[in-house]
Amino acid sequence: MVRRSAQPNATRTEQLVGVQRNCLHCGRGMWQDYENRRRIRTLNGLVQLRLKIRHCPNLECVGYRQPYRPEAKGQWALPQQEFGLDVIALVGQLRHQEHRSVGEIHQQLQQRNLCVSERTVSHLLARYDELVALRLGDRQRLRTVLQAQQQVVLAIDGLQPDVGHEVLWVIRDCLSGEILLSRTLLSATHADLAALFEEVKQWLPVPIAGAISDGQHSIRKVVSVAFPEVAHGLCQFHYLREAARQIYDADRHAKKELKKQARGARTLEQQHLADDVTDEVMQGYCQAARSALTDDGRPPLDAAGLRLQQRVSAIEQSLARVEQKGGCLNP
Ligand SMILES: [Zn+2]
């Protein structure tokens, strides 16, 4: 969007000078050449950067008249970006850690005196994602992390956002929590997965102590072929779910049957609204019934059917008490 107003005045000025004083190529002292000015919008106001640019005066040097910029400029902002890295980090944190929407992030930035458009927020979010991708793809850094722990335990899973979509395959190290490889594949054949494993195996600097997956047959096969000596465990969540399958099925069936009996709360509520009768008590009961019906619980440890039964019983008992006290309820 075109800016309609002039940029406000800088709240402070920072002068950046290069630490390196001699030419990197020939070693001769560099000369002070000119000054670049740049304004960065940070969380702590608008900062005017004054960058002192140097160059090598040696005619025979490959670095002759090549600008040498202060090293510290990279910690302020990305090249050609108006916003500081602190703003990008905040936007990323709000989005991915606190699950805020673009609109909410926009509001928060406004509150911190950063007047931006919502489109700018999306733009900043894209920069954040790029930086994260860059960090995850930095194998040199990963090697250092993994070497320190001397082994890895691989977790493998495929995530499909929707039916018919590509599957995002992620191979992670359980010990450090680092993502070692992520790739989208249209199909998940034996050969496709084997290629992913082979790639990770190639650059891993430490031995693989174990592998964990949901036990999908194609993964089992590939792990046994690619890493024959590696123990392959079932993920605890999937293990528990498999073990509790029978209880879960019985619970789900019970919930379905219970739901059949409890239908009609919405119709009852709407009838009351249509009659223009604002019966608070009635509405309260309808709301309680509705929320009980839509509460799915967290299988397998939290049985949704049992919970529904408890909640419906509580509502029933409450209604019985009302009747005892002589209250009047519509059928
Ligand atoms: Zn030089």
| Name of the CATH first level of the largest domain | Alpha Beta
N- and C-termini, Cα separation: 60 Å
> Architecture of the largest domain, CATH level 2?
2-Layer Sandwich
Strand element count:
8
Rg of Cα set: 31 Å
Shape: flat
- Lateral strand order in the biggest sheet: 6-5-4-7-8
Labels describing this entry:
331 residues, 5-stranded mixed beta sheet, 3-stranded mixed beta sheet, 44% helix, flat, binds zinc ion
Would you give an account of this structure?
The protein is an alpha/beta fold and 331 residues long. It folds into four domains: 76 residues, no CATH class; 57 residues; 93 residues, Nucleotidyltransferase, domain 5, CATH 3.30.420.10; 80 residues. Helices cover 44% and strands 18% of the residues. The chain has eleven helices and eight strands. The protein has a five-stranded mixed β-sheet. Strands 1-3-2 form a three-stranded mixed β-sheet, with helices on one face. Strand 2 and strand 3 form a beta hairpin. Helix 10 runs antiparallel to helix 11. The longest helix is centred in the last third of the chain and has 21 residues. The protein starts with 11 loop residues before the first strand and ends in a 7-residue tail after the last helix. The model has no long low-confidence stretch (mean pLDDT 85). Zinc ion binds next to loops.
